[in-house]
Amino acid sequence: ASVMILNGPNLNLLGTREPGIYGAATLQDVADLCKQTAAGLGLEADCRQSNHEGVLVDWIQEAGALQRDGRSIGAVLNAGAYTHTSVALHDAITGSGLRLVEVHISNVHAREPFRHHSYLSPAAAGIVVGFGTEGYRLAIQGLHRLAEAARL
Ligand code: DQA
Fold it and tell me: In this UniProt entry, which residues are annotated as the site Transition state stabilizer (predicted)?
């Protein structure tokens, strides 16, 4: 089975973007970490990034369909700034029935007030916030546990 790892706007700039907040790891480093973590669980990580909201909606729907077919355990999503703005992403998650773990590299609750609200959290199975890029590993492990528990 697979797990989809989705990154939203500006996460292609990881490594050079505000390294004091987001760290030195690049998106490629994150993809490598995800593939390694997934492989350790017998899973394949499908890592994607887009700056475009509608593309993320399409991928969430695709991930939901793969999960429904039993070919995926769900998805990990760092939606970047769309987290704080996007009803469309919220509706894509609930509408597709996707098992989703929301990830934020930084602790959004210790930052500006506009980062404190997430449209995605009510639709998420779990949330990982503030652990740096290590959060992607934690999210995959948590998603795997939820998927295993759902089978019992
Ligand atoms: C982020 C936090 C968001 O507020 C921000 O817009 C990002 C990255 C994080 O991973 O900490 O782009 O999702």
Answer: 17
